[in-house]
Amino acid sequence: MLISPHVFERPAAAVLPFALPALRHPSASALLADHRGLLADLLDGLGSPLHVVLPEVFEENVARLRRAFAGAGVTADILFAKKANKADCYVRSAAALGVGVDVASAPELVGALAGGVPGHRIGISGPEKSDGLHALAVQHGCLVAVDSVSELRRLAATARTAGRRAQVLLRTRSAGQQGSRFGLSAAERAAAVGLCAELADDIRLRGFSFHLGGYSTSERATAANEMIEHCLDARRSGSPSAELVDIGGGLPVRYVEPQHWDAFLAQNRPAHYHTAKSFQDFYPYGGRTADQAVTAIMEHRVDGAESLAAKAGRTGIRFVVEPGRALLDQAGFTLFRVQQVDDRRDADGYAIVTVAGSSFSLSEQWFNSDYLPDPLLLSAGPAAPEADVVFPACVAGSTCLESDLLTWRKIGFPRPVRRGDHLAYLNTAGYQMDSNESPFHDAPLPRKVVLRLGDGSGPPRWRLDGV
Q1: Residue 194: CB atoms within 10 Å
Q2: Which is nearest to 203 in space by CA: 238, 245, 248, 247?
Q3: What is the CATH number of the domain that holds 346?
Q4: pLDDT of residue 398
Q5: Collapsed DSSP state (helix, strand, coil) of residue 301
Q6: Which of 50, 138, 241, 454 has a CA that sits 20 to 30 A from residue 423's CA?
Q7: Phi-psi map region of 132: left, alpha, beta (phi>0 left; psi -120 to 50 alpha)
Q8: What is the pTM of this model?
């Protein structure tokens, strides 16, 4: 059964004014409330940290995104951005649902194929791809986003040698992204379109893509409109198959309630963080949802008149979208075991909780930012009743790095944290789990456990990912 976002459990805000209670999918709530023993056994047996991945939630997100595009009246091919999480289970789910995969390396491509995704549903992105990746892409009929005229020539030569036509998107700098290191300039685009017509036996130009940072729906719609015009120009220049516009990823995820997010932003200050650290930028944790963003992009008025969706329909354009985080929304969480508590409340006003693991397994630090949704404090076993007391603490990793903090922000835990407790960081599947993983100190990389609740009539089924 599909779960709508409005039925997510919304915990009440904690006592501290800067609390950010995380939205929680019913599957995560059920596991954390009803199957603590199983989670504790898995954490004990497989080590801390432990990533719990929930492919059933990924599958719900695919269905929700498909409904959003259908509701907008457009055709869109969904390619799961594999870089957002390395777990094999999501690729298997994508294959079962007829969803494609976006990859940017030969190992990612091999993994997508091994997971059951056919080549014609795989997109290849990334700048100046290797000849080996080109050869695999041509052999399997993948859609290759070409980033330069030189790459286009190399790809054409590879296709000629293989006796096949390469399926190509031309990645183009939009008017708002002229400083990007990715994509073709206007002059390069014109040369590439001409070259595609000249090399039609080796290259089939399918359309255009662009790289856009941030989450502005109006900027994404404006760039998509530019790509539609490029498709129309390409058709007039001898490439009749130019019908695809790849709008990339950049579909936001809502981690916390908007009112909690707004309240946080209004009174956020360095004193709320360990060593008064100041962050310049945060992910928009309380912003739009992915389906809301799709609707806003497709309803955006272009050329001062019709909507983007209407123009696409009128001109025979199909969209390609490459969501990563949006398909992984609520599709996993991460458990850490508390290794030590340094209670500095008398001197500094807060404690430092050290967990078994490091911030490499919560990768927001890679972006010089902090992962802001509050972690949940869980008792490893039966806990004695305690009076409610706010226990302010940040969360540190167990490496020798001064900067190894999972959470710089001082969290208002509902009771004193003890050695052996567990911390659950919710909604970590999208980019947090393994974007920055490292065997630093010869520590093994964290395991991923695939959990399925099914219809709830029996215990959850689990397996190690990749098995």
Answers
A1: 15
A2: 238
A3: 2.40.37.10
A4: 93
A5: strand
A6: 454
A7: alpha
A8: 0.93
